[in-house]
């Protein structure tokens, strides 16, 4: 006899946890960057470019952007699931959201590694 | 049948006007819906706009100077930045509150109400502070 649980606990647990872990990553990045901007600013162009050209800064910013995309995906999917009832429209909006977030990520990579 | 009159009004469908003006959300509810609204605003259009600003400011010195000396000097851009700052600060503060609630910190009614008020006040104060620095 196959004993499979169709409904029950921990469906969505992964998304829920991912949203919180990415939130913490972004919060730390925000505090560090905010501190740097307030302490070191105002910047001229050379300093501004140097700030984002640093290896650590690039990796940290990419990590932030990836966290943002994942975090926003979970959040936007929650919003669509809560408010948009027609399946076709909800699916379309979810696909658009994925495309938008993937586009942001690609754009961020382009901006950082130019 | 005292219940009949009541029952006839069921189910009650909520209009947008009712949601906006009739239903009084408690403070934690307000923080929650604002967290959602600010999150949606940050995804679109604010993230796209900020990426555009970062892109232009890093691509060349002319781009940087244009953004700093012209683009961001317009009242519309400053208003946009103010909206971004509020949305980010609110989402940040409310998010930290939710993380604490997740690990069962401050879940008693009084504490939850107080932290909700604190989130609203702190995010508005931060917005005012950064807005002041912006101008």
Quick summary:
Chain A has 114 residues and is an all-alpha fold. Chain A has helices at residues 13-40, 45-53, 55-83, 87-112. In chain A, helix 1 (13-40) crosses helix 3 and helix 3 packs antiparallel against helix 4.
Provide an overview of this structure.
The complex is a heterodimer of chains A (114) and B (135). The longest helix of chain A is centred in the middle third of the chain and has 29 residues, at 55-83. The termini of chain A are far apart. Chain A is mainly α. Chain A has a single domain (14-112), classed as 3 helical TM bundles of succinate and fumarate reductases (Up-down Bundle), CATH 1.20.1300. Chain A is built from four helices and no strands. Helix content of chain B is 81%, strand content 0%. Chain B is built from six helices and no strands. By secondary structure, chain B is an all-alpha fold. The interface between A and B is medium-sized, with 23 and 23 residues.
CATH class of chain A: Mainly Alpha
State the fourth-level CATH superfamily of chain A.
Fumarate reductase/succinate dehydrogenase, transmembrane subunit
CATH architecture of chain A: Up-down Bundle
Mean pLDDT of chain B: 91
Q: What sequence of helices (H) and strands (E) makes up the elements of chain B?
A: HHHHHH
Mean pLDDT of chain A: 92
Helix content of chain A: over 70%
Measured by DSSP, the beta-strand proportion of chain A falls in: under 5%
Please state the structural category of chain B. mainly alpha
What distance separates the N and C termini of chain A? 58 Å
Number of H/I helices of chain A: 4
> Quaternary state, please?
heterodimer
Identify low-pLDDT runs of chain B: none
In whole angstroms, how far apart are the ends of chain B? 65 Å
Low-confidence stretches of chain A: none
Shape of chain B: elongated
Greatest interface? A-B, 23 and 23 residues
């Amino acid at each position: 006899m196959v004993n499979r649980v169709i409904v029950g606990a921990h469906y969505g647990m992964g998304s829920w946890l991912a949203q919180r872990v990415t939130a913490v990553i972004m919060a730390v990045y925000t505090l560090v960057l905010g501190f740097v901007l307030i302490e070191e600013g105002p910047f001229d162009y050379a300093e501004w470019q140097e700030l984002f050209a640093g290896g650590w800064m690039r990796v940290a910013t990419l990590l932030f952007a990836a966290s943002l995309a994942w975090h926003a995906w979970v959040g936007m999917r929650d919003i669509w699931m809560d408010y948009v009832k027609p399946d076709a429209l909800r699916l379309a909006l979810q696909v658009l959201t994925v495309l938008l977030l993937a586009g942001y990520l690609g754009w961020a990579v382009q901006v950082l590694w130019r | 049948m005292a219940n009949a009159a009541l029952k006839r009004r069921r189910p009650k469908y909520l209009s947008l006007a009712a949601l906006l003006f009739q239903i009084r959300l408690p403070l934690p509810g307000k923080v929650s819906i604002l967290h959602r609204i600010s999150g949606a605003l940050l995804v679109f259009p604010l993230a796209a706009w900020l990426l555009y600003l970062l892109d232009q400011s890093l691509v060349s010195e002319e781009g940087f100077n244009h953004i700093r000396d012209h683009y961001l000097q317009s009242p519309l851009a400053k208003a946009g930045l103010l909206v971004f700052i509020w949305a980010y600060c609110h989402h940040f503060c409310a998010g930290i509150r939710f993380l604490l609630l997740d690990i069962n910190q401050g879940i008693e009614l009084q504490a939850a109400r107080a932290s909700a008020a604190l989130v609203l006040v702190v995010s508005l104060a931060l917005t005012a502070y950064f807005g002041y620095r912006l101008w």
